[in-house]
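Help needed: design a sequence for this.
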């Protein structure tokens, strides 16, 4: 026990590298799942650590799930890590993509990428995501999916 008191940096280092190894393992597992589900050459952009706050047509306050977001040539795809929740938004169903800080009337105090789209029931709906580098995602979705569907 005396060595632990004198070498506290060792405990901190072990915990830090343990957390880093866990994050690397989670991302490896997600990448493996993506490669099995999609052709690796069709994925245009990937973001891990994305928070999804649900869609506007779901009842209740915004719920948060963490997972990854994929930009494919013809759609957006989200999958949560723990709940295995999946959301697929085809390019033809996307009306607009924009930045906001609130969802379902609740200020979430963070930068959100919001997507207005038609859901499976052909109702207007909005999905909200917290992604790394929101301006890049907004531009990528706009250039890849929205402009492409307008040209078609």
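Sure. Designed sequence:
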């Amino acid at each position: 026990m005396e060595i632990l008191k004198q070498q506290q940096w060792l405990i901190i280092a072990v915990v830090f590298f343990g957390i880093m190894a866990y994050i690397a393992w989670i991302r490896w597992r997600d990448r493996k799942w993506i490669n099995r589900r999609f052709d690796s050459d069709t994925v245009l952009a990937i973001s891990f650590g994305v928070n999804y706050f649900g869609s506007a047509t779901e009842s209740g306050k915004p719920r948060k799930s963490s997972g990854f977001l994929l930009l494919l040539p013809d759609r957006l795809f989200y999958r949560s890590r723990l709940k295995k929740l999946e959301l697929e938004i085809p390019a033809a169903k996307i009306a607009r993509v924009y930045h906001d800080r609130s969802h379902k009337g609740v200020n979430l105090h963070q930068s959100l990428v919001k997507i207005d789209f038609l859901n499976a029931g052909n109702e207007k709906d909005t999905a909200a995501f917290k992604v790394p580098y929101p301006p890049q995602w907004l531009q990528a979705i706009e250039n890849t999916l929205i402009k492409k569907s307008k040209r078609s």
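Residues 1-37 form one domain.
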